[in-house]
Amino acid sequence: MKKSPKDILHDLQRERSEASFDIFFSCYHNHVLLWANSIVKDPDLAKDIVQDFFLDFWQHKRYLSITTDLSAYVYRAIRNAALKHLDRAKKMVSDESLKDNFQEFPLYRELDRKEIIYTAINNLPEKCREVFTHCCIYGKTYGETAEDLGVSINTVRTHMTRAFRLLREQLHPSLFLLLLTRDICLETN
Amino acid sequence: MHTDIEKIYLKVIQNHPLTFEERRLLVKKLRDDPGLKPFLLHLKDIHHEATALKTSDLDEKKALLALKQRMKPEPKKALRIRPWMRYAAILTGILITGYSWYLFHHTTESNTPKITLQLEDGSVRELDESTVNIITGNNGRAIVSQKKNTLHYDHVSQPGETSVLHNVLNVPKAKTFQLILSDGTRILLNSGSRIRYPEAFHPGEKRIVQLLDGEAYFTVRHDSLSPFIVRTGKIDVKVLGTEFNISAYTEDSLLHTVLVSGGVKVRSEGGTVRELVPNQIATYNRASEQLSVQQVTVTDHIAWVDGKMRFVDKPFGDILKTIERSYDVKIINRNKKLQHARFYGDFDIHKESVNDVLKVFATGRPFSYERNGNVITILPDADKKEHETLLPMP
Predict the structure, then answer these.
(1) For residue A2, is it within any domain?
(2) Across the interface, which of A93, A114, A161 has its CB nearest the CB of B42?
(3) Do A180 and A113 meet the contact criterion of CB atoms below 8 Å apart?
């Protein structure tokens, strides 16, 4: 039985043990790796960023200073680290004449929107999150997901229905539409 | 039977084609819930981004072990030079010298095709995509600045200047390159393309570029006084300021112009003129010399701009040509039945190798192939199978 972010943080702060860190790591690693990769679009760089984050988190006992939501903290820390890398990369090839100044602003909006979704997925109940991640992020079929997680296809189906419902509730339409500026078209016709 | 709506969402996210019934259900859901569409599109993005990561990257146990290695405090040892280290140093020196000798002699021989720029005076410059550079003519005049895979012309022609100097950019197979012309127009060139254009446009005059071969995505800077014209030999495309894609490979029997936004006029060699509105494609058939216009899903035709190959109901023969150009390989298809089979598919050229791509096709319609350097031969069906299909159906 896995724990909620609240329990994980609580255990870290109380026990300060490597065992509690391991649980924290296993719970967040894959999801923050996806998140970092989504920002830097470079799997190797994303892996470095994530490893550096966890190392720093442990060595400097960052968990002691977290008072709010653990997930929100982790996602924002990864985002800041990733953006720092992007800035550095940009400086290395910086050439004013070729820089698209107008791109800066939409980048942050886009990130805000994505951060909300990534965090929302991460906050799904454990089993539900695993099923949803396998299907919708790793791109597996119901059958493959059932096999990977050792559950029945019917269970996968139930979790998917629940995951979509919970996500749609969490990502309240008005909030989400407000953030939506990108002109996009879904091929439905 | 009742279909799970989540299964349809999943298909959308994974970019699988929908049946008519599924499409109908989806459209209804989208209409009822305006927040659903952006939600699904973001999930589609997230899924797509995740494909860059390998399964082994997402193994948290392995990642934790790697981290534990770094969590241990590093043992501090003074470095003492031991006798064996001296030999190791000498050996390393020999290896490096030998390897650089090897590299020097072998890279010059293997001669991979380079991106080249031919100047008005006929001289040819090779462009190295990893550098930032200013390209100058033989007289030392600065012509264009290169930043990695972009050439940026910013020469503004002076009033009274009459001469027009042309450059020809040649992009070999398996590469793409971006051009920014003096008027700010951006042209992204696909692999195996050649384009001729002036170093600077004169204000108030027609802006003419020639797509000599290949495919290009144009983002034309609006200028109502100077129409922008792309010539391909068979068709001319005239625009005022817009985004569109032209595919005019000399080896292809069809030339395509797809309009993304704005408006263009396509004129064929025979004088037929068709005007396009966004989401339309003009197809010119070299054999029949006919120009026809159809409604299309634009994103299917410009996937290459993002480094992707997207095939929608495409004959295998055409698909092979695209693969050849994207990966700079030669593919010989000896499996005749496959040539006209139609496929759907989505690939990322930078993340998937040519083997990965062929394997995907082979799962749909089993075939085997041999690779010998840059030549890939798709083998004919095994005799037995060939024979079976000849038997009359019971």
Answers:
(1) yes
(2) A114
(3) yes
**Mean pLDDT value across chain B:** 82
**φ, ψ (nearest 5 deg) of residue B377:** -115, 120
B118: left (phi over 0), alpha (psi -120 to 50) or beta: beta
Tell me if A43 and B54 make a contact (CB, 8 A cut-off): yes
Closest-CA residue of chain B to A38: B49
Q: What is the pLDDT of residues A40-89, one digit of tens each?
A: 888 888 999 999 999 999 888 888 888 878 888 899 899 989 888 877 76
Percent of chain A with pLDDT over 90: 31
Pair A84, A171 in one domain: no
Q: What are phi and psi of B278, to 5 degrees?
A: -50, 150
Whether A73 and A142 map to the same domain: the answer is no
Residue B297 pLDDT > 60, yes or no? yes
Q: Residue A173 pLDDT more than 50?
A: yes
- How many separate domains does chain A show? 2
Domain B115-303, CATH among 2.60.120.1440, 1.25.40.10, 3.10.20.90, 2.40.110.10: 2.60.120.1440
Q: Are B39 and A171 in contact, with CB atoms under 8 Å apart?
A: yes
For B338, counting Cβ atoms within 10 Å of its Cβ (0-12 exposed, 13-18 middle, 19+ buried), the class is: buried
Give the phi and the psi of residue B61 in degrees, each rounded to 5: -65, -45
- B137 with B121: CB under 8 angstroms? yes
d(CA B202, CA B182): 10
Residue A25 covered by a domain: yes
Phi, psi of B146 (to 5 degrees): -115, 130
Give yes or no: residues A4 and A72 share one domain.
yes
CATH number of B307-390: 3.55.50.30
Whether B33 sits inside 8 A of A139 (CB atoms) is no
Write the CATH number for A37: 1.10.1740.10
Nearest residue in chain B measured CA to CA from A92: B132
- Cα(A107)–Cα(B140) distance, rounded to whole angstroms? 40
Q: Is there a contact between A97 and B41 if contact means CB atoms under 8 Å apart?
A: no
- A84, A6: one domain: yes
pLDDT in tens, B53-107: 888 888 888 888 888 887 765 444 444 555 555 555 555 555 555 555 555 544 4
According to the model, what pLDDT value does residue A33 have? 94
Measure the CA–CA gap between B41 and A126, rounded to whole angstroms: 24
Residue ranges of domains in chain B? 5-62, 83-112, 115-303, 307-390
The mean pLDDT of B333-340, rounded to a whole number, is: 88
The 10s digit of each residue's pLDDT in A3-45 is 788 888 888 888 888 889 999 999 899 999 999 998 888 888 8
